[in-house]
Amino acid sequence: MELIIALAAVALIAVFFISQYNRLIRLNITVDEAWAQIEVQLKRRADLIPNLVETVKGYAKHEQSTFDAVVTARAKATTASTVADTAAADGMLTQALRGLLAVAEAYPDLKASANFISLQEELATTENKVAFSRQFYNDNVRNLNTAVKTIPSSFFTGIAKVSEREFYEVEDPQDRNVPNVSFN
Amino acid sequence: MQAANRRKTIGLLMGMGALMWVVVYAALTYFGGTGAGIVPIAVGISLISVWGAYYGSDKLVLTMTGAKLIQESDNPKLFDLIQEITIASGLPMPKVAVVIDDAPNAFATGRNPEHALIAFTTGILDVMDRDQLQGVIAHELAHVANRDTLVSAVAATTAGAIAIVSDILARMMFFGGRRDNNNNANPIALLFSLVILILAPLAAVMLKSAISRKRESLADATAVSFTRNPAGLRSALEVLAADSTVVQQRSTAVAHIWIESPLDAKSVSKMFSTHPPIQERIAVLKSMESLG
């Protein structure tokens, strides 16, 4: 009888250890997958850009500085590797694309062209997909970081070789522009 | 918001279990030993019918609603929108179907996220803009993420079993199946158990509807956690509320799966309604918007 109780206790503890360990591993893998999804969507957006730039160029030849900004931002975005670098490049590219679309507003022929309309729709959905994959990644990083910091899962981070991960924070220059408020 | 809705669902499911237990107890009081034998049979019958439907839910619902599966090439824009929400929710891409019907409506089904199916009427695809449709898709995928097909299958099984038990017992009463060795039982207890057996199926249907209403509110809340845009779903619900056309099929069996109830709201009282009033849902989403 005592033997059975002892064995049951050992089994229970083993189950607890395994479930804690597996939870951390699972959370970590989900963050990896979420990161892969961000990269897929960023790649998709980067692939759209040459086509978009060419289309706009066909109608608006004199906006060279806007094109240059997009091309530079795209080059940076495709070479970035760390979370922080990717996020910064992503923010710059979003900004540059916004400029490009603003240019397009001034050319009615361009706005009416079928090619541009379909590119615009594709860019809109890709921007949404980038934003959603970012949101999904950050949600999962938050879950992982909470597990890494809270008891009891925090005891298992060493064995599972899981540590806190970095949030994906987009540096949107426009968000930095705090409106000037003066109190006279 | 989501946690509160989940707790209420669990409470209601427990209420369903308690109701089942009361019915069994009443049956035992009234019939003695013979009553007990019926319960496993009733649960068995109900289980087979409902779980058959649960496993084949995607195919079954397709036949019952006349929805046709479509491919990405048929409507790339719709697929783009659905992909956006699968990315936001981390769910796999569901099967997509279209019902040819002018009434704007949509539904989701499938026993797990891998077998999910979401369907739209041609009406909803015509009238809604991008943000509204995104809200609707998020609501439907929220049902998938919350495993509402499973929840409603559990609710339907229990409600069905209670109905079968009461039905069989009512017949037995009619044919005088009551045992003589129970004659010394308290007549008040006998009368009481009789009343319980008659009222139980009604209570079961009410509980089932209450569970369905809670799942709708939960799906609205989960949808907002996917899109972070309560305004999209809110204006979609406003479009649905303003629209008076109703999907051309009034099968009560599948009423609970649509985003807007296809049953004429006026003919069903709130107790038996499978959906919370649409104005209430709009008000909740508006309060989320003001939270930013």
Automatic annotation (TrEMBL), chain A:
Keyword Phosphoprotein: no
Pfam families linked to this entry: LemA
Topology relative to the membrane: Single-pass membrane protein
Record's subcellular location: Membrane
Entry keyword Transmembrane helix: yes
One Gene Ontology cellular component annotation held by this UniProt entry: membrane
Domain of life where this protein originates: Bacteria
Gene3D superfamilies xref list: LemA-like domain
InterPro entries according to UniProt: LemA-like_dom_sf, MamQ_LemA
Keywords linked to the UniProt accession: Membrane, Transmembrane, Transmembrane helix
Similarity comment text for this entry: Belongs to the LemA family.
Protein name: LemA family protein
Species this chain originates from: Actinobacteria bacterium BACL15 MAG-120823-bin78
Taxonomy of the source species: Bacteria, Bacillati, Actinomycetota, Actinomycetes, Actinomycetes incertae sedis
